[in-house]
Design brief:
Elements: E1 2-8, H1 13-36, H2 41-61, E2 65-71, E3 77-83, E4 93-94, E5 98-99, H3 101-104, E6 122-128, E7 140-141, H4 167-176, E8 180-187, H5 197-206, E9 211-215, E10 225-230, E11 235-237, E12 242-250, E13 256-264, E14 269-276, E15 280-288, E16 294-302, E17 315-323, E18 327-333, H6 338-348, E19 353-359, H7 382-385, E20 390-393, H8 405-418, E21 421-424, E22 446-448, E23 456-462, E24 464-466, H9 468-472, H10 482-491, E25 495-498, E26 501-504, E27 509-519, E28 522-532, E29 535-540, H11 555-569, E30 575-576, E31 580-585, E32 595-601, E33 614-619, E34 625-634, E35 639-644, E36 650-658, E37 664-671, H12 685-694, H13 705-714, E38 721-726, H14 731-750
Helix pairs in contact: 1-2, 2-14, 4-5, 5-12
Length: 754
């Protein structure tokens, strides 16, 4: 580094004239003063000091600056940055034969390509879009146990998914190489992390550093059919049909017929012919009835189209567990009306349901009828109540020695903290109105009409009507196709009583409304659901579902209530052990979507764990792991909660561990979607063009490397670094000038002039 110094002024004719006149006038006046005082020594010194002050002021009037120049004595640097992200694997560069984008720019990454530039500048070749450690997360800790093969206390480093950041590499190269002549950037322009590249380009422009961009890849999407999602549930029940939705996206210009094939790990194959829409998304589903219990792996494949160039995204694999079902249901009722009788029969005859009935019949001292389904009293402890997956509340309340405030509080906690389901089936006696004075008021998904506690009856049958949500819901699916389902609901026998409902509460979902009756809030809601805490709530606004058996016996009545029970108990039974239960939402998360995790942990005695160290270890498909500490969310129910975000598509292994009990529970979460870097997506040359334009650079193709070298060779060296020190406003100069003035006025007082 060569350093030179100089003093510069900003004189103008006017400032020179003023300075000369001021100095000349001071000389004349000073000489006259000395002559009048016979050149007395004190007068001569004082006038000399005055002259010095005026001369300094005249010099400062010229704006003097001390200039330091730093001229680098080494070669300038040319940085060649190339993209090595996943999208560069797209094979859409057509030369003599199709190449990937990475192969197309391979020559630019070799030093031989820039050899002719070595005499002019030092060439530095660097890749970007590398994987980096994720920033520290206060909720992420080291594992305190070894539930999944990690040594106690061992640090687990979680890595971010590899993506493309075009902004940071441009700024980093400036910091690493101060004497930068120019930058060559080779990329497809696709960025998904960091700031907008144009911001970094603006920074380089202000520094006078041009960027020569080499865009690569086709800006038109390749002809492709991509399997986007395969929504396999966490578990299914052996012998019961399960419907598995999937989504397909096509970039082909025309609709076409295709065959979707689902294959199980045991060799079972299911095929379905579908029609895939052009330039859009197609949603459909596959029906499957598993027979054997155990873990299965399902693979969904789409047949390849003749014009499709890529077929590596035509297949998705997802795990599923096939279990033997045993759900525990508690039905609480007062008077054994027809709805109660047929509901009890439907549940007791369902092989997957174990039903218990509590009948608060007036004057009834013993279990109703002596049937084994009946229990004598409400569960005595929360531990006993927590065994039930779903609770039905009929026409019961606080009066007539039925429910107590404490029991209502337990039911509230069962839904909120234990993910159980609660079904309200009000009756004409209006006892459920008294529940509004209990914690259950928050769970009720509808607003009731206080002026008509007994509800409304009619001599003529009235009917339901499906809402848009109801047409898509699994709860109201009584036929296999949408058209058949509408026909079934329109032909079901009607009801002759309905509850005094005003409106559905915000946050709830209305599936069925009254076909004719409406009020100021709209159509009267009769089947309403909502999520409350970790569980689900359903309100059935009529007790006439038993009439659906007319002419078809158990076909629709049993199917409906069976679907209700399984829908409400599903989340609670995602993963469970002897003393632990783990559930999460959403069930089929997308990559980079936050997953809420809830756990219930019991002590060996069966009592809820009131507090403790509960951790969850997540192992991604690549083997990278993280461990999060679950926070207590309901000590009375042993409830714990936390969150994590899957950064990779595929199966994530979850291990729940409690330090106090030493128990662990393992399950899997399958994250759907694609990585940040997607193969087959169009390139973005417009981004590269904008970077070049903003920085006053140029856009070149891969085969024009010599033109890039010619531009760089013709560029002048960057101007030397200059440091200017403004003497006219420097604190030391100003301070010295003030000191001279002070000395002058003190001297005048000393000689008696003031």
């Amino acid at each position: 580094m060569i350093e030179t110094h100089s003093l510069s002024f900003a004189w103008t004719p006017w400032t020179i004239a003023i300075a000369v006149i001021a100095i000349a006038a001071t000389l004349v006046l000073g000489f006259l003063a000395c002559w009048r005082n016979h050149f007395r020594k004190a007068t001569v010194l004082l006038e000399g000091l005055r002259l010095i002050v005026v001369v300094v002021a005249a010099i400062l009037l010229g704006g003097p600056e001390w200039v330091e120049q730093y001229v680098p004595d080494d070669k300038p640097v040319v940085a060649v940055l190339y993209d090595d992200s996943g999208s560069m694997q797209t094979r859409d560069v057509v030369q003599s034969e199709p190449q990937t984008r990475e192969e197309a720019i391979a020559s630019l990454t070799q030093m031989e390509a820039w050899k002719s530039l070595e005499s002019r500048a030092e060439v530095v070749i660097e890749p970007f879009a590398e994987t980096k450690p994720e920033p520290n997360n206060p909720n992420r800790i080291n594992p305190i146990s070894n539930p999944a093969g990690v040594a106690p206390g061992e640090t687990t480093e979680f890595m971010e998914e590899k993506g493309t950041d075009l902004s940071s590499p441009l700024l980093d190269v400036v910091r690493k190489h101060p004497h930068l002549l120019g930058v060559v950037l080779a990329s497809d322009g696709d960025w998904n992390q960091g700031d907008a590249p144009v911001r970094a380009a603006g920074r380089l422009r202000s520094m006078g550093i041009p960027v020569f961009t080499v865009p690569v890849g086709s800006e038109e999407r390749l002809p492709d059919v991509e399997l986007l999602s395969f929504d396999v549930p966490t578990f299914a029940i052996g012998g019961k049909k399960v419907r598995i939705p999937f989504s397909i996206e096509s970039s082909l210009p025309r609709d076409h017929a295709a065959t979707v094939t689902m294959t199980t790990s045991k060799g079972e194959t299911i095929t379905k012919d579908i029609r895939i829409a052009a330039m859009g998304r197609t949603n459909d589903s596959v029906d499957w009835e598993p027979e054997d219990l155990g873990d299965e792996t399902l693979t969904l494949t789409i047949s390849k189209h003749p014009n499709e160039l890529l077929d590596d995204n035509n297949e998705i694999t997802a795990p599923i567990s096939i279990r033997e079902e045993k759900l525990r249901v508690l039905v609480i009722e007062s008077v054994p009306r027809w709805e109660y009788r047929y509901l009890r029969n439907a549940l007791s005859r369902d092989p997957g349901v174990e039903v218990s009935c509590l009948l608060f019949h007036p004057g009834l001292d013993a279990r109703g009828g002596g049937n084994a389904d009946y229990i004598a009293t409400f569960p005595d402890t929360k531990e006993e109540l927590s065994k039930y997956d779903v609770v039905f509340l009929g026409d019961v309340g606080l009066d007539d020695n039925q429910l107590t405030l404490e029991q209502c509080e337990w039911l509230h906690g069962l839904v909120e903290q234990q993910a159980s389901g609660l079904v309200f089936i009000p009756g004409w006696e209006g006892r459920q109105f008294s529940l509004r004075e209990t914690p259950l008021k928050d769970l009720l998904p509808v607003t009731l009409d206080e002026g008509q506690p007994g509800g409304w009856g009619s001599r003529t049958a009235q009917h339901f009507e499906l809402t848009q949500l109801g047409r898509r819901s699994l709860l109201t699916k009584l036929a296999d196709t949408a058209d058949d389902n509408l026909e079934v609901w329109s032909n079901l026998p009607g009801f002759q009583w309905y509850a005094p409902v005003l409106a559905a509460k915000p946050g709830s979902e209305t599936l069925l409304v009254h076909q004719e009756v409406s009020n100021r809030f709209g159509r009267l809601p009769l089947l309403v659901t909502r999520t409350y805490g970790a569980g689900k709530v359903l309100f059935m606004g009529t007790d006439g579902a038993w009439r659906w058996r007319k002419g078809v016996e158990d076909l629709y009545h049993y199917r409906f209530w069976g679907q209700v029970v399984r829908w409400m108990a599903y989340r609670r039974n995602m993963a469970q052990g002897e003393t632990m239960r783990l559930y999460y939402s959403p069930e089929q998360p997308q990559v980079r979507q936050t997953v809420s995790v809830n756990a219930n942990v019991m002590e060996a005695s069966g009592e809820p764990l009131s507090g403790g160290d509960v951790t969850l270890q997540i192992v991604a498909p690549s083997g990278r792991s993280q461990t999060i500490q679950l926070q207590s969310s309901g000590e009375a129910w042993g409830a714990f909660a936390g969150r994590f975000t899957p950064e990779e598509p595929g199966e994530h292994k979850l291990t729940l561990f409690c330090k106090q009990t030493g128990d662990s529970l393992q399950t899997t979460v399958f994250a759907q979607g694609v990585a940040l870097e997607q193969i087959g997506k169009p390139a973005r040359p417009d981004v590269m063009q904008e970077i070049a334009r903003v920085t006053n650079g140029q856009v070149f193709t891969v085969d024009r490397v010599e033109d890039v070298i010619a531009w760089l060779s013709a560029m002048p060296d960057r101007p030397p670094s200059i440091r200017r020190i403004a003497l006219w406003s420097h604190p030391a100069i100003v301070g010295g000038f003030i000191a001279l003035l002070a000395l002058f006025w003190i001297g005048r007082k000393g000689v008696g002039l003031i």
